Amino acid sequence: MIEVATAYGPARLDIDQPATAPLSLLVLGHGAGGGVDAVDLVAVRDAAVAAGVTVARVTQPYRVAGRRAPAPAGQLDRAYAAVVTALRDLVPAALPLVVGGRSSGARVACRTAGGLGAAGVLALAFPLHPPGKPDRSRAGELPTALPTLVVSGDRDPFGIPPASGPVDVRVLEGETHDLRRDPAQVAAVAVAWLARHGWAAAGQPGGYPSVLYASE
Q1: What is the rounded CA–CA span in Å between residue 7 and residue 11?
Q2: How far apart are the first and last CA of the chain?
Q3: Do residues 49 and 16 lie in contact, with contact meaning Cβ atoms separated by under 8 Å?
Q4: CB-based burial of residue 58 (10 Å sphere; 0-12 exposed, 13-18 middle, 19+ buried)?
Q5: CA 106, CA 32: separation in Å to the nearest integer?
Q6: Nearest to 126 by CA among 143, 148, 98, 151
Q7: Could you give the CA distance from residue 147 to residue 169 in angstroms, rounded to a whole number?
Q8: Cα–Cα distance between 29 and 58 in angstroms, integer?
Q9: How far apart (Å, rounded) are the C-alpha atoms in residues 35 and 145?
Q10: Longest Cα separation, the chain
Q11: Class of domain 2-214 as given by CATH
Q12: φ, ψ for residue 153 (rounded to 5)?
């Protein structure tokens, strides 16, 4: 666990290294009121590390300070970017960078990916809109030029983004916004996508578990 100074107070990094030389660096952010111990983040961490990925989980300054209400989007983005920049000095610079997170953390990753030079984005439970307000779409935050994987539950009240261009959307039956019904399934689809791009060791025959389906 490492503290990183930002303009908004210290952020925290939890870094997990694979047993062999890493194939990529995956940086994950938490949801608005949660932490990096969310079950889907931990499951993805465990599976990715086992597949040869260095995984860093970022705790935003407001959560380090004990607050649950999230900071404004601009502060979240700048703090996340500062942490990722500092992280680059701690891991091999040549590693492909994949940014990601769940819910609010997925939005931060999507908004900062281009500026950070990321190779791809992993968005768990990307909140397409506030519950009951489909007119307030956040689809414009999804990258348009980077390979992006969105993993959503078919019962998510925050909505499911449509697949488009480089954005691959996988929908898990029976899951809600917290993606905690079967976190191993979340991890399986995430690592299969990483492996498809050469960012993790291959291990999922056929690319994706058959119980998942793509959003149209």
Answers
A1: 10
A2: 40
A3: yes
A4: buried
A5: 10
A6: 151
A7: 11
A8: 5
A9: 29
A10: 47
A11: alpha beta
A12: -95, 145
In the prediction, which pLDDT does 214 show?
Answer: 56
**Which residue is associated with the tokens 């086992």?**
50
> What is the rounded distance in angstroms from the CA atom of residue 150 to the CA atom of residue 128?
11
- Is it the case that residue 202 has pLDDT exceeding 70? yes
In this model, does residue 67 exceed pLDDT 50?
yes
The pTM of the full predicted model, rounded to 2 decimals, is 0.93
What are the backbone dihedrals phi and psi of residue 76, each rounded to the nearest 5 degrees, phi first? -60, -45
CA distances from 208 to 55, 83, 171, 187, 189 (A): 21, 31, 11, 11, 6
Residues 6+ apart with CB under 8 A from 133: none
The residue ranges of every structural domain in the chain are 2-214
Average pLDDT score over the chain:
92
Helices of type H across 89-214: 104-116, 183-196
Q: pLDDT tens digits for 118-177?
A: 999 999 999 999 999 999 999 999 998 999 999 999 999 999 999 888 999 999 999 999
Mean pLDDT on 93-108: 95
Kind and range of the H or E element at 28?
Answer: strand 24-29
Looking up tokens 């030389």, which residue turns up? Answer: 21
Residue 93 confidence (pLDDT): 74
Pair 67, 80: CB distance under 8 Å: no
